[in-house]
Amino acid sequence: MSQTRSTCVACSRTSDELPIVRIEYQGAVIGICPQHLPILIHDPTSLAGRLAGAESMKAADHHD
Question: What digits encode the pLDDT tens for the residues 7-23?
Answer without folding.
Answer: 999 999 999 999 999 99
